[in-house]
Amino acid sequence: MIRKMPIIITGGGQRLGLACAKALVAKGYSVIITYRKVRKDIAALEEQGITCIQADFSTSSGVDLFTTHILEQYSALGGIIHNASEWDSEEECSNTALLMETMWQVHVFAPYRINLAFEALLCAGAEQDGQADIIHMTDYVAEKGSDKHIAYAASKAGLANLTCSFAKRFAPCIKVNAIAPSLLMFNNSDDDDYRIKALSKSLLRKEPGEQEGVLAVQYILDSLYMTGRTLSLDGGRHLV
Ligand SMILES: NC(=O)C1=CN([C@@H]2O[C@H](COP(=O)(O)OP(=O)(O)OC[C@H]3O[C@@H](n4cnc5c(N)ncnc54)[C@H](OP(=O)(O)O)[C@@H]3O)[C@@H](O)[C@H]2O)C=CC1
Ligand SMILES: Nc1nc2c(c(=O)[nH]1)N=C([C@H](O)[C@@H](O)CO)CN2
C-alpha cells in the first residue's frame, strides 16, 4: 500500500539513502531527504519531485533547525528513515572524546530528538495512511562490537535500543524498526586487501549493494505486524 504522507530519509544525498529515495519516489511515495554536503545528485532529485533539505545533525542547534523547519512546513508524515551516519574509527580520529561525542550526536541524539519532535506528525500521518513508520539504520556491530570502530559501534547500539523504547512508546499507530547491515557496499577508498577481508567475514562472501537495504525498507513499510524488531542483512556473518 503506497503511503500518501511524506517519508523523510536522512542522509539521502548518496549511497543507501539516495537509493531508497529514488526507489520510493519511483513507487509513488512522497519523499523528503536531508543532505549535508551539496552533491551532484541533489538537483536531479529535486527535478524528480523530491524535497531536499540541507541539515547537519552534528550539533543540537542543527537538529533543532531541521525539526523546526519540518514542523512549520508539514502537518503529517508517513515515516522517517534515520540513515544519516558517520563511520569514523579510533585510528582516523585521535581526539576520541570528540569522536564519541560526534557518533552519539548523529546516531543517537539526533534520531531521539527528531522522533520526539515528530510524534504528532507521524500519528497524523497514520490517521491518513493507516500506519506510520520510523526506521533506524543500525549495524551488525551494534550487537557484536568492533575493535576498530568502538565509538561508532556503541552509538549504533544506542540507536538499536531506541528502536525498542520508541516501539513501546509510539504503538499502535507508529511502527518502529531497525535494519542492521554488516556489509552493503564498500567505499571507493577501500583497498583490495580490506575488501577481501570484509567479504570473508560472512558465509555468503558478497557485497550485496544498496538494493539489499532498499528491499528491507520496503518490507518494513509494507509490514502490518512488525515493530520493535531488527532486520539483519549480514550474509550469515553471525555463523562464521
Ligand atoms: N555501507 C555499508 O556497507 C553499511 C552501512 N550501514 C549503515 O547504513 C546507513 C547507510 O550507509 P551508507 O549509505 O554507506 O552511509 P554514508 O556513509 O554514505 O552516509 C550517509 C549520509 O549521512 C550523511 N551524514 C553524515 N554525517 C551527517 C551529519 N552530521 N548530519 C547530516 N547528515 C550526515 C552524509 O551526508 P554528506 O555526505 O552530505 O555529508 C552521507 O551522505 C548508515 O546509517 C550506515 O551506518 C551499516 C552497515 C554497513
Ligand atoms: N555511515 C556509514 N556506516 C558504515 C559504512 C559506511 O560506509 N558508512 N560502512 C560500513 C562497512 O561496510 C562495514 O560494515 C564493512 O566494511 C559499516 N558502516
TrEMBL record:
GO terms for molecular function: oxidoreductase activity. It catalyses: 7,8-dihydromonapterin + NADPH + H(+) = 5,6,7,8-tetrahydromonapterin + NADP(+); (6S)-5,6,7,8-tetrahydrofolate + NADP(+) = 7,8-dihydrofolate + NADPH + H(+). Its EC number is 1.5.1.3, 1.5.1.50. Gene3D superfamilies: NAD(P)-binding Rossmann-like Domain. Keywords: NADP, One-carbon metabolism, Oxidoreductase. InterPro entries: NAD(P)-bd_dom_sf (IPR036291), Sc_DH/Rdtase_CS (IPR020904), SDR_fam (IPR002347). Signal peptide: none annotated. It is an enzyme of class 1 (oxidoreductase). Catalyzes the reduction of dihydromonapterin to tetrahydromonapterin. Also has lower activity with dihydrofolate. Belongs to the short-chain dehydrogenases/reductases (SDR) family. FolM subfamily. This is Dihydromonapterin reductase. The lineage of its organism: Bacteria, Pseudomonadati, Pseudomonadota, Gammaproteobacteria, Oceanospirillales.
